[in-house]
Design a protein that fits this description.
The protein is an alpha+beta fold. It has one domain: Orthogonal Bundle (Cytochrome p450), CATH 1.10.630. The protein has 19 helices and twelve strands. Involved in the oxidative degradation of abscisic acid.
Length: about 500
């Protein structure tokens, strides 16, 4: 669950890659009209009279700079703005006035130091699909309670016993690739989905899982659709599937209560009596966790496959590290590993692989930014951030700044042999809304990479280069690659 989340985590970055021009225009007209109407009737506050707005440009009336953003790689848009105006600048996109922040100090100010002044913000349609009581849309005591419940299920002490089960999912996933041309991103999404379901429901809850999967696939197709709830539209189908998902989760809850099974998964954490969550709250948060866990983790794994293919020296170092773990287990030096399954301890012997994951998350920066909204007028570095304006900490700009990471465009895992400077590396967000599933995300990546690098080979030869955005940055076309099972360990 890399959310960017997710924060998961999950985020409204998806708005910046909507395929529907109609929806874009609809957003612009409706949001711009409401904003213009409200601001025309609101007297400026004392802070607004005294403090200047950040430098920048607001673009055309109502439309703002949305089309400039859409006409190029969004990261180029942000980089050019930063170069011209500095680390804090204003713009107007998707009908909203915005302040962009690209310094570690500014990101910390919004996400940590003064987090209470900036609330998470999402499209209303996204809230309806995931569930208005999901953790992503909350603040205050209810958010803190939900976060504690998720962390209880996803912290190292809770997930260390799931390594063997995650390994089974990884081996099943990889076995279907042998000799096939696969869409790497789609396959990684399937893997991340299955790990998420395992972590939420445990390995024994199989009665309703296939039905749940099919409903979720329908819901997912509507995430970026125009929010018109008419029969035949993607949004209507998605909302119908969302209702069915709630009913499926209710059946699972009833079955779990009837069986009185003792479990250590996320569902058990949500169901604990003293937490007093309603079934509707549980359903909203389960669907939200699936959303946060799937695309982000799959995106990172896809980029890792690409980078390992492009840097054979890095791949060889990872392979040697993983093969050493296999060699020790085969020699029987670890008496607890007679079945040669991976253990939690094994995943702590993978420093090179962990650095590859870290560097991939920095270079790819799956979560390029996150949205917040100022709940009151805020002063920062002599500038005014007006109440109601969107505020976007730009993680990718921070991760690609030469002040924070020398030669930032170079893929170099060795840079993580020492810890980065504070607040310069935020692949999982920062503060109280940072991704609570980051430990699980790292674990499932390590397990898959262990078997991928020791059992399979692949080549990027013939693969088209390029990046697509939809909503996360991905290798072009999801990185189609043919994987082959190695006939022996020395056959690389």
């Amino acid at each position: 669950m890399v959310s960017i989340i997710v924060g998961i985590m999950v985020n409204t970055i998806s708005l910046l890659a909507l395929p529907s021009v109609v929806y874009l225009l609809w957003c612009l007209v409706s949001k711009a009209w409401v904003w213009a109407w409200s601001t025309s009737r609101t007297l400026p506050t004392e802070a607004q009279r005294k403090l200047p707005l950040p430098p920048g440009s607001m673009g055309y009336p109502y439309i703002g700079e949305t089309f400039q953003l859409y006409s190029k790689n969004p990261n180029i848009f942000f980089a050019l703005k930063q170069k011209r105006y500095g680390a804090i600048f204003k713009t107007h996109i998707l009908g909203c006035p915005c302040v962009m922040l690209s310094s570690p100090e500014a990101a910390k100010f919004v996400l940590v130091t003064k987090a209470q002044l900036f609330k998470p913000t999402f499209p209303a349609s996204k809230e309806r699909m995931l569930g208005r009581q999901a953790i992503f849309f909350q603040q205050g005591d209810y958010h803190a309670r939900l976060r504690r419940l998720v962390l209880r299920a996803f912290m190292p002490d809770a997930i260390r016993s799931t390594v063997a089960d995650i390994e089974t999912v990884a081996l099943t996933t990889l076995s279907s690739w042998d000799g096939r041309m696969v869409n790497t991103f789609k396959e990684m999404k399937t893997y991340a989905f299955n790990v998420a379901l395992l972590s939420i429901f445990g390995k024994d809850e199989i009665g309703h899982i296939e039905e749940l999967k099919q409903c979720y696939y329908t819901l997912e197709k509507g995430y970026n659709s125009m929010p018109i709830n008419l029969p035949g539209t993607l949004f209507h189908k998605a909302m119908k599937a969302r209702k069915q998902l709630g009913e499926i989760v209710a059946k699972i809850l009833a079955s779990r209560r009837e069986s009185k099974v003792q479990a250590n998964d996320l569902l058990a954490s949500f169901m604990e009596d003293r937490e007093a969550l309603t079934d509707a709250q549980i359903a909203d948060n389960i669907i939200g966790v699936i959303f946060a866990a799937r695309d982000t983790t799959a995106s990172v794994l896809t980029w890792i496959v690409k980078y390992l293919g492009e840097y054979p020296g890095v791949l060889q170092a990872v392979r040697e590290e993983q093969e050493e773990i296999m060699r020790i287990k085969e020699m029987g030096q670890d008496k607890n590993d007679v079945d040669k399954c991976l253990t939690w301890a094994d995943t702590k012997k993978m420093p090179m692989t962990s650095r590859v994951i870290q560097e991939t998350m920095r270079v790819a920066s799956i979560l390029s930014f996150t949205f917040r909204e100022a709940v009151e007028d805020v002063e920062f570095e002599g500038y005014l951030i007006p109440k109601g304006w969107k505020v976007l900490p730009l993680f990718r700009n921070i991760h690609h700044s030469p002040d924070n990471f020398p030669d930032p465009e170079k893929f170099d895992p060795s840079r993580f042999e020492k810890s980065p400077k504070p607040n310069t590396y935020m692949p999982f967000g920062n503060g109280t809304h940072s991704c609570p599933g980051n430990e699980l995300a790292k674990l499932e990546m390590l397990v898959l990479l262990h078997h991928l690098t020791t059992r399979y080979r692949w080549s990027l030869s013939g693969t088209e280069s390029g990046i697509q955005f939809g909503p996360f940055a991905l290798p072009l076309n999801g990185l189609p690659i043919r994987f082959f099972r190695k006939t022996s360990r020395n056959n690389g």
